[in-house]
Specification:
282 residues; mainly alpha; flat
Length: 282
């Protein structure tokens, strides 16, 4: 074996070792997720049933009951949060994509990154001071606003990144044909990046679906089925927190069953988002 063959063989061996090392670390990183799913599953699946999903909570100390009010409450609060944050996030994302070279856009980007890094419990306290205290009571709308603030940076950044990938020739061609700027944005840029933007929205929804801290200070909770967004409303994360920290074993079991429902919802939204993202890239 000459020297060149020896160097090539040594390099191939190093590459194989490095790939094995990366694969092992990747596998280690996902072990906690599988352990969490396994632990929650063996504790919660035995109490998960159609009756648990479609029933209202029983009074304290009474066995049985479900989390139907919390499931409905979660979708209402997250839905309103999405309605608030989606139009604002898309508009700001378009601005950052179109005016990326200005100093103002740089300042906005820094502020968006800072907003994304603020702990959820701090946003909950801010929601409590800004909305709950003036209204003098907890409400679903205050929870939605707090979650919308958390969802906003995700939509802005995903919209900006998707629109940055739109070929410049498409926009220039439309402008050259005499199309007004607003029609270029509405008819060309946004439709072109629709799937990518929608994927970012889904990822943002899955991000806030499991948030608990902001809801403790804003929406609080409700043992009854409430559809009035100006009254306290229960959510799945809130029920999990309350039940898990209670002294009752029955509620502990229901907390694990509710955790399974929440994991299934978040996992489903993530899978849909990833599938759309993959399809869009193709």
């Amino acid at each position: 074996m000459n020297k060149l063959d020896y160097i090539n063989k040594k390099r191939v061996i190093k590459d194989k070792i490095f790939k094995k090392f990366v694969t092992i670390l990747t596998f280690i990183s996902i072990i906690p997720l599988f352990l969490i799913i396994y632990f929650v599953s063996i504790r919660g699946f035995r109490y998960l049933s159609l009756r648990f999903i479609t029933s209202l909570p029983k009074p304290m100390g009474e066995a049985g009951g479900g989390i139907f009010n919390a499931i409905i409450g979660s979708f209402i609060i997250v839905g309103i949060a999405a309605l608030i944050s989606i139009p604002i996030g898309i508009i700001v994302g378009v601005f950052l994509s179109e005016y990326k070279e200005t100093k103002f856009s740089e300042v906005v980007k820094i502020l968006i990154d800072t907003l994304q890094g603020i702990p959820s419990i701090v946003i909950g306290i801010i929601g409590y001071i800004w909305i709950v205290k003036p209204l003098k009571h907890f409400s679903a709308i205050s929870g939605s606003i707090a979650l919308a603030i958390m969802m906003l940076p995700i939509i802005i950044k995903s919209t900006e990144e998707i629109l940055n990938m739109v070929p410049q020739e498409i926009k220039e061609g439309a402008i050259a044909l005499g199309a007004p700027y607003y029609r270029v944005v509405l008819k060309i840029l946004l439709p072109y990046g629709f799937v990518g933007i929608f994927t970012g929205i889904l990822l943002g929804i899955s991000r806030i679906m499991g948030e608990t801290a902001p809801l403790l200070f804003t929406a609080f909770g409700n043992q009854f089925l409430n559809l009035n967004i100006f009254k306290p409303m229960s959510t799945i994360p809130y029920v999990i927190f309350v039940y898990a920290t209670s002294p009752y074993k029955e509620w502990h079991n229901q907390a694990f069953a509710a955790s399974i429902i929440l994991i299934i919802i978040v996992l489903s939204i993530n899978l849909i988002g990833r599938a759309l993202e993959k399809k869009w890239k193709m």
